[in-house]
Design a protein that fits this description.
globular, 7 strands, alpha+beta, two-stranded antiparallel ribbon, 7 helices, BirA Bifunctional Protein, domain 2
Length: 209
């Protein structure tokens, strides 16, 4: 989506979207949730309004305080994501939060740099019960900056010429994210396997039907 002043307008929209979903699942589908809970017990989701937002730096600091070794600009692996989810739950009493301002080194070339610190970016992940359900960012809309970032990341501009040229016609500042709905369903319901959240799951061992 396009925004006017700040990419947090995108985060505000995503925040409202997710809490709207959670509110309505509880209000409109309590009988269905009860049926699932009878077979696959899960704790009710705890979430805040507005949603908790932490900076990447704050997340790293929380992990270090818990005895986890981590460099300032190191990406989070699955184990650290889950540990951070536990720490956030204990401190803020929420299963749902946003981690903002990821390091530049762990994001693609088209992610907008943080204007105040080039080591970080205007990018975010959204977590549910300690696992990522959405990754997103403000995308670079300026063709010159896009070319500079591509070169810095080792991407040859001629291989993305059509992509870069598309922004020469003019583009609003914009951002967004990709959400995995089956992953969200699995984590909301506390399921142990994502296959349980998909009607026709696909994996390396199951391609049909």
């Amino acid at each position: 989506m396009a925004f006017n002043e700040h990419y947090y307008e995108v985060l505000d929209m995503l925040d409202g979207m997710f809490t709207h979903i959670f509110d309505n699942l509880t209000a409109r589908f309590a009988p269905e949730l009860g049926i699932v809970n009878a077979q696959f017990p899960f704790a009710p989701l705890q979430y805040l309004k507005p949603t908790l937002r932490l900076s990447f730096r704050e997340g790293v600091a929380m992990l270090r305080e818990a005895g986890i070794e981590m460099a300032d600009l190191e990406d989070l692996n699955t184990a650290k994501e889950r540990k951070l989810g536990e720490l956030v739950k204990a401190k803020y009493h929420t299963d749902f939060y946003i981690l903002d301002k990821f390091p530049s080194d762990v994001r693609p070339f088209y992610t907008m740099p943080d204007p105040h610190d080039p080591n970080y970016t205007n990018s975010y992940d959204i977590f549910l019960r300690g696992e990522e359900i959405m990754s997103g960012a403000q995308r670079i809309h300026d063709p010159e900056l896009l070319t500079q970032r591509a070169l810095k990341k080792g991407v040859r501009p001629e291989t993305i010429k059509d992509y870069v040229d598309s922004f020469k016609y003019g583009a609003s500042p914009h951002g967004g994210g990709g959400v995995g709905l089956e992953r969200m369903c699995m984590l909301y319901l506390g399921l142990k396997n994502i296959r349980s959240a998909s009607l026709w799951p696909r994996d390396p061992h199951r391609l049909t039907p």
